[in-house]
Each structure stands twice: as structure tokens, then as C-alpha cells.
Amino acid sequence: MKRAPHSGDLQRRRLLLAAAAALMPWRAAAGGQVKSSDTVSILDFGAQPGTDCTGAFNQACSVARRVHVPAGEYLLREAGWPSDTEIFGDGDRSILRMPADAAYLITNDSGSASPRQNIAGLLMRDLQLRGSCDADGMSEFRHLVSLNGVSGVRFERVLFRGFRGDAVYLGSGNRGASERHNTDVVIADCRFDGINRENRNGISVIDCDGLLVDGCRFENLTRHNMPGAIDIEPNRHPYHVVRHIHLRGNRFRRIGGSVGVISVYVLAGTPAPRDILVEHNLSEDYLGTGGFFHYNDNRAPAPESAHANVVVRDNDARRGATSFLLLSGKGIVLARNRFRDFAHSARIGSPVPAMAARDIALEGNLLQRCGTAGQSAVTVHSVDGLRFASNRFIDAGSAAAATSAAVLFGRGQSSGVSFENNCFETASPRRFIAIRKDPAHVLDPASNRFDANSLNGLANFFQAAQ
Questions:
Q1: What secondary structure does DSSP assign to 240-276, as a single string?
Q2: How far is CA 293 from the centre of its chain?
Q3: Are the C-beta atoms of residues 339 and 310 closer than 8 Å to each other?
Q4: Which is nearest to 167 in space by CA: 96, 270, 237?
Q5: Cβ(217)–Cβ(249) below 8 Å
Q6: Domain boundaries along the sequence of the chain
Q7: pLDDT, tens digit, for every residue of 303-339?
Q8: What's the first-to-final CA gap in the chain, in angstroms?
Q9: Tens digit of each residue's pLDDT (9 = 90 or more) over 35-82
Q10: Which tens digit of pLDDT belongs to each residue from 200-248?
């Protein structure tokens, strides 16, 4: 039988480990550091449940590659997370709690614009990070985890709960106007519970090249005037990099906010994000005023502009304000999504002259009972190159509006629009309109196509050469 450690033995071990930690302070470098131990517990450094364990936590991380957080609740403020460190607990019972006056729970800053100097090789799993939005309300810039200049980061089975700002912030420095680049971040099988929607976002992406969010659950988060669950929003700096973003198999429930469950918002002058794939996600009971998916890069792309290469496919979104908003951007595909029971119209393009969409495709989507409080399921403003192919529109628009349509061309102008093999149908005794054109919209019939669509007796006012 293994002998239980004597209190003197534990004390000697703590002193030895603390001495090693003092001799080997952690450094923010991709190569990591030599550590004296493989696995330690924060208890080895004097941490006690219910007390501030920041010093013990930092010492443990500087000494060992694997740091155990036993069951219990420990206070933590602005702790570091050095290279080549795994932080793990015993599940939801292992709680690191952020005090109300702390700026962050855990934060990293590589101190360099070069990814070669990034803090690297980080794993966090099987524990809970706890904020205090239910007691202290929202505080926009107090994040649970703020990472700036990291590479090779993985979160597994972490519960992010009650955050006041963001749960995870992938940024470019905590002080602002600092160039940092994050690469290769994975957030898998995690839960984000905002408790009372007094938070900013679940995940904010300011700078990241390579992000996978896989199999996570988001619920009860985002204040009414904040973006949403996952917000991709680089700041107005030319050095920001946002690309290779993959969001798959996640579940969103009762998300608030004013932009979208998943949003991409870029100010003019900032490089547009690219290579974004959103697939196999489920969204239910959206409580915000935006859409399930929102994309806006605040510009009017030219023919020679690069494609954003954004694909939104095989998602299921049910109940909410708007199915999707593609206000500007080039090279966006929505394919095989199921949008049901949305009150307001989806939008493609913008009536604002400085913004437009180009090369947009909707292929094989279902839009059922979308726009029930408005005039259409989809409203098209200014766009150059738009393809509707094999979509099914069922009971689109409002039964109370005589001019309700599945697709409405609103204020703006368009060219190169095609409708191919779409089906428009309704079970309502009121006859909807399949496609309607507002007098304020200018079509280009010579560049448009209309081929093999099933109107099922519904009126069509789209103008095309074919």
C-alpha cells in the first residue's frame, strides 16, 4: 500500500518546487522552456479552495508541463500561461473563479509581432472557468481568457461560465494598437454559458490564422447591444490577420446580441477575413436582432477584388429575427442550410452606395416561414453576380401583406442575377408573390437568367433575358 504523504514531506516538496520556479521564470517563446517536473498540483504550492491561488498557479506553470487543478473553487487573477503547459482539472468541479475587480482570469502576451516568438503548446481541459456576470453584471473588457500572440492552443471540455466580457479573446495585445498574431487554435467540446446574457461574446476573434471551433455548446449569452456568440471582428489596423476559420458541429441556444449568432464584421481599411467555413451547426431560439450568420466587410468589392471564400453549409437555424445578412463581401456561398421561422427578411447587399455584394450563391437551401413579420424571406439590394439555385421557399413572407414575396429586390441595383431550379410554394389561402421588384431597384435584364423554376401559380416580376 502506498504511504500517505506526511505533512513535512508535502512542505519540503512545495519548497523545492517553489525554489525551482524562482530559478526558472517562464519565458514567452515558441520553443518553450526546460521544466523541472512533469506533473504538479496547485496544492503543492499552497493553493487552498476559496482563496487567491494566483501565485501558486503561476509557480506551478513555471515548473511543470502538466498542472492539475483539483476539485474545488480557487480565485485567479491575471495569471500567465507559459509555453508547453497543460492545465487540467477533474471536470466542472474544478473551478478557477475570476474576481470581480480582475482584468482577466488568464492572459498571455508574446510581446512580439513575429509568430516565431509566440507562446506555444498550450492545452486546457476538464475544468470550469467562472466569471461573475450574474452577481456583478457585464464589463465589456474583462475577459476570462485573453490570448495575444499564441500558437498551438487547444481547449477541451472546458466550461466557460458567467463571463462578463468575452469567454475567449483572441486578440492583438491587451493595451491596444499592438501587433500580435495567433495561429492554430482549437476549441473543442466546450460549453459557453452566459447565465443571464450580461456578457460580450463567447469567442472574439481579432487576429487568428487557423481556428477550429468544434462540437461546442453556446447558450444564454450576449447582451442586447453586443455582437453575438462568435464574433470575428478585427480592429482597424492593417496588420490584422483573420483566415482559415472553421466552425462546425456547434449548438447555439437562446443567444442575444445585435449582429448575429455567428458574425463577421470588418471596418473599411482592414483586410477582409477569408477562408471561413461554417457547417453542421444548430441554432435555436435566437433572441437577438441580427441573423444566424452575418457578414459585412463595409466595402463595395471590385471585379478584381479577392474572393473571401466564405462557405456556410448544412446548418439548421430555427426561430429568431433574421436567417442571414450578407451586407457586403465577395465570394460567399450558402448551401443546403435549413432556415425556419424567422420574423424578418434576410438581406443580400446594401442600399448604402459605399457597400455592395459580389459573387454570392444560394444553393439548395430551405427557407420556410421566413419573413413572417415583413415583406419577404430574402431582400436583395446592390449586388453584382447573384445565383439562386435549387432553393425551396415555403410560405415566405407575411400572410398579412398582400405584396409579400419570397424574394424582394429592394432599393439598389443588381446585375448578373440568375434563378435556376428553385421552387416557390405556399399552403396559405393567400397567394404570395414568388419574386417582386421594388420601383427603387434597377435590374439589368440582359445579364439576368430565369430557368426551370417552379412557381406553382405564384406571380413573378423578375426581369431576365431568358
A1: --EEEEEEES-EEES---SSEEEEEE--TTSPPPEEE
A2: 10
A3: no
A4: 96
A5: no
A6: 70-289, 301-466
A7: 998 999 999 999 999 999 999 999 999 999 999 999 9
A8: 86
A9: 878 999 999 999 999 999 999 999 999 999 999 999 999 999 999 999
A10: 999 999 999 999 999 999 999 999 999 999 999 998 888 999 999 999 9
**Whether 193 contacts 160, CB under 8 Å:** yes
The CATH class of 70-289 is mainly beta
Q: Which residue has the cell 507559459?
A: 82
pLDDT of residue 227: 97
Q: How far is CA 308 from CA 33, 200, 264, 386, 422, in A?
A: 38, 26, 11, 15, 26
Angle, vertex CA 168, rays to CA 143 and CA 36, nearest 5: 95
- The label of the residue with cell 450576449 reads 222
- Among the listed residues 114, 125, 274, 269, the one whose alpha carbon sits nearest the alpha carbon of residue 180: 114
Residue 435: name the closest of 355, 375, 383 by CA: 375
pLDDT value at position 429? 58
